[in-house]
Each structure stands twice: as C-alpha cells, then as structure tokens.
Specification:
By secondary structure, this protein is an alpha+beta fold. It has two domains: about 190 residues, FAD/NAD(P)-binding domain, CATH 3.50.50.60; about 80 residues, 2-Layer Sandwich (D-Amino Acid Oxidase, Chain A, domain 2), CATH 3.30.9. The protein has ten helices and 19 strands. The strands form three sheets. Strands 1, 2, 8, 9, 10, 11, 17 and 18 form an eight-stranded mixed β-sheet that branches. It has an eight-stranded mixed β-sheet with strand order 6-5-13-14-15-12-16-19. Helix 1 packs parallel to helix 4, helix 1 packs parallel to helix 7 and helix 2 runs parallel beside helix 7.
C-alpha cells in the first residue's frame, strides 16, 4: 500500500527512477517509487552502459554485478557497408571501464531493483498519477485509485510522455524525426563482430548493430514506417541493404522486437518548485551513439545527491544547480545524436564526400580520442 507521506516520491521505475531511489535510500532517505505499468510489462530498449555511467554508479553498489553480467565491447565504429569510416577504440581511455558495456535494459533495471530491495525499498505498481498539487511545504500526488501521497519533493522519471512534467506545466521543446525506429534482438550468423558496436551509415537510414550477452544482437534502424513486431524477413532486409556486404549477416531468429517514434526534445527547465525531472521526462533524442539511458542514469545520481543535501538542510538552490548542470549535458547529448543521425542519412549524391571527409578525420588521433571521450561520457566528468 502507498504511504501517506514520504521524503521523495519517484514516479517511474525505469533505470532513471530506480537510480534516484537507490541513491536516496543508501543515504537513509525515505523514498517511494511508483510505476504505472504492471510487473514485467516493461520492454527492453536501451542496451548500452558507457564508462562514465559506470563510474558514477560506483557508490550505489551495483557496478560489479552489471560488469559481470554484461558484454564488453572494445570499440565503436562508423561504417558505410564494409568500409570503416571512423574507428573509435575505447582501450586507451583513462578509466577502470575502457569499453562499452552491452547489457539489456531489463537486466540493468533488475540489478538496480535488487539493490533498492536490499536497502529496504520497493516499487509499488500499478499506480497512475492523475494530479500533482504543490505548496510551499511540499506536493500532494493523487492517483487513479483515489489514493494520494504527500511528499517533500516529486521526481518525474516517467518518460517522454511524462504526466509529472505536464502537471508541472513544463514545456518540452523540440520536434519529432519523420521516420520511425524499428528495434529487434536477434540471433544471427556471420557478417558482424561480437565485440564491437557498429553504426552503419546508409541513405536509407540509420542501422545500429550491437552484440549482447548470450549471443544475441541488438538491431536498431530508422524506417519510414516500422512494423509493430519486426520479423526475420524484415530485419534481414535491413541488414542486406544497409549492413555488411562481403560477409552477409544472416538472421536466424527474432527474439524480441518493437517500434517507437523518436523525438529530439529537452524540457525548458528541470525544476518547478517541488517537482524535479530526470531521464526521458527531461530529454529525448535519437538512439545513435547509445546515450539515452546513460544520460538518465547520470541525471539520477546527481539528483539523488542534490535532494539528499536539501533534505539535510541545504539550500533549495542546489536543486536549481542540478538542472543548471544536467540540462547543458542533455543539450550536448541531443546534439551529438542528431548530428550522427543526419550524417547517416545524407543524400546519395553527398555520400562519397561525407565518407572521404570522415575517413580523413579518422586519421587524426585527436579526433578519434575526442569522439571516444564523448561517446564514453568521460567528457562530462
């Protein structure tokens, strides 16, 4: 059952909301997490955890488990079919995690939830927020069940269509890409390495191929109209027209698939008095570069620290500082993902020029190093 009062009410039990909750619970704060979906209703989307994200998660006590369960991809490459345009090796990065950790969002959430449970917390489901009213001392959140919770602060980690953000009256500035995105976890043979994340540039659209633990691969692609559940023939068509040519990647099975529309938007502010935003409720963008969940988790760590300080008697200005620090990061993440997406989909006539320029840039060590720092998130230290 819902408590009547809590220090912090977190709405949304994805990676961002769970990170906020674990961060607060480990510091002794009373945190309540609610989610509108029933147990097990979440789908796997994000699959990349970068080096900086692992660094900021260290105090939460989940990194060893994540690292043990994930696959370590040693480099990221941008390709035009078989031609490598930009190789981005992670091995030389000054971090304990010189790789991209490939691990499904489902597993990441399970690890965070297990840690929250260990700390005495839990997620209450399904609870749908219908209203948020604020005053000088706190906020009262009401639910479709008719129940309500009084909290000192409310965190909206409830995704792109955030009810909390809407209740706070915070604008979500930006627009949508015209294409839809198809996502599938598949078993395949040949064609692609098992230790590298590849972004294929194609006039037909973006294609990301990334290895996952257990021998599966994550396929993400922009298409004019994605099917609700991509089948083997559909995914095979994407690989045949955008992926490797010399050694064909053959799809054996689609383990799971979905579709989604991608926007590039950022909330105008991350705070409206007693309401704070984090993760997809605060920023959304193209999956190119695998930055989305990472930006949300690092939001969550920073927000938990700021809320703990304010609950301990610190100035509420620390919550404004959270937004002032994290919003520019989101702007950079959105910009990077958008540039990669637009570079990937240039007109066929411009494609040879783009390839020549990228290959020339890739010969410059400083360019490769700068891109590695940005993709890994270490640039945001």
């Amino acid at each position: 059952m819902l408590p009547t009062t809590t220090d912090v009410l977190v709405v949304g039990a994805g990676p961002t909301g769970l990170t906020v909750a674990v961060g607060l619970a480990r510091l002794g704060r009373h945190v309540t997490v609610v989610d509108g979906q029933a147990e097990g209703a979440n789908t796997t989307r994000a699959a990349v955890v970068h080096a900086r994200t692992l660094e900021v998660l260290e105090p939460l006590g989940v990194v060893d488990t994540l690292v043990a369960q994930g696959l370590h991809a040693n480099r990221f490459t941008v390709r035009d079919r078989d031609r490598v345009l930009v190789p981005v090796p992670f091995g030389g990065l000054p971090t304990a995690y010189p790789y991209t950790l490939m691990i499904s969002q489902e597993v990441t959430e399970a690890v965070l939830l297990a840690r929250l449970t260990e700390l005495g917390g839990r997620v209450l489901r399904p609870y749908t927020v219908t209203g948020v009213e604020q005053d000088a001392a706190g906020a009262t959140v009401t639910f479709a069940s008719g129940e309500s919770v009084r909290a000192a602060y409310v965190v909206g980690a409830d995704g792109m269509h955030s009810t909390v953000r809407a209740q706070a009256g915070i604008a979500f500035t930006g627009s949508a890409y015209p294409e839809s995105f198809s996502l599938a976890d598949v078993r395949l043979s040949g064609g692609v390495p098992d230790d590298e994340v590849i972004l294929y540039f194609s006039p037909a659209g973006v294609l990301v191929v990334a290895p996952l633990p257990g021998g599966t691969y994550r396929i993400v692609a922009t298409v004019a109209e994605a099917p609700k559940e991509p089948d083997v023939a559909f995914v095979q068509g994407l690989l045949d027209t955008r992926g490797p040519e010399a050694s064909r990647a053959v799809v054996k099975e689609v383990v799971w698939g979905s579709r989604f529309q991608v926007h590039h938007r950022i909330a105008d502010t991350y705070r409206e008095r007693r309401i704070l935003l984090a993760g997809d409720a605060a920023h959304v963008h193209s999956p190119a570069g695998g930055q989305g969940m990472n930006a949300g988790i690092t939001d969550g760590v920073a927000l938990a620290q700021a809320l703990d300080a304010v609950l301990g008697g610190g100035s509420p200005d620390l919550l404004d500082a959270y937004g002032a620090t994290r919003r520019p990061v989101a702007q950079q993440v959105v910009s990077l993902a958008d540039r990669l997406t637009r570079l990937a989909t240039v007109d066929r006539r411009v494609r040879p020029v783009r390839n020549v320029v990228l290959r020339l840039l890739a010969t410059i060590p400083a360019f490769r190093r700068r891109l590695a720092w940005r993709l890994s998130g270490l640039v945001y230290r």
